[in-house]
Amino acid sequence: MLVYSLQQEANWEDKIVGTLGIRWDKSTLNGNSTEYYAFPRASLRSISPILTFWNVGFMNQLKPRVAYGETAGAVNFGATFTPLGGTNIGGLLGSVVSTQIGNTMILPETAKEIEFGIDAGFFNNRLALEATYYIKSTQNNIQPKSITFNGCHTTPSNEAELENKGIELSLSGTPIETANFRWSSRVMFWKNDLLMTKLGIPTYISGAFDLVLVHSCMQKDTPLQRSLVVLLLL
Prior knowledge:
Elements: E1 2-12, E2 16-26, E3 37-46, H1 50-53, E4 59-73, E5 84-89, E6 92-97, E7 109-122, E8 127-146, E9 154-177, E10 182-199, E11 204-209, E12 213-218, E13 222-233
Antiparallel strand pairs: 1-2, 2-3, 3-4, 4-7, 5-6, 7-8, 8-9, 9-10, 10-13, 11-12
Organism: Daphnia sinensis
Pfam families: TonB_dep_Rec_b-barrel
Main location: membrane
């Protein structure tokens, strides 16, 4: 894998900070191993003027922020090749064609994400709040595509698109702070909804064994996952 990256940051009196960047990736795992894929990114954050115009005594910090970025997921190793499987016939070793056929035109999964957030500090940062809302869309999601009428042979293909929407909240505080003792606590909340917005192959059931049997229905406009996490750190 070969990567080139450029980044530029601008800072105006530590009140507004902006960043622009771009990365070019080339990988032998992709169908076209000589092509570079570009992934731009940008961010902007500032200290809100609300603290200048209003006398908010209990709030000492307010920083809105916004960011956008693109990235890619690597293609699985060997996706462009058709492997051979070993066999034994009459005591003689041989090879058989695998049920998975390579795809020399496979593309890397690409993701675009935009997020909006705010960081606030209260009572000389004894109490801090971080809030983020994000939307992430994934294109060229790799799915197994059947290429024979009986479904015995499949090939990896860029047949699906996904969308993630979620929020992240963090509230931290220092209720007690003395010369010899400091007590800090944090509560974190995270919620994420995953939706398949496009599926260019027939609906199928994906399952896996772990401690329990988990099934996922791969179907367009069907929620694939809904996560809700709450952590309390003392």
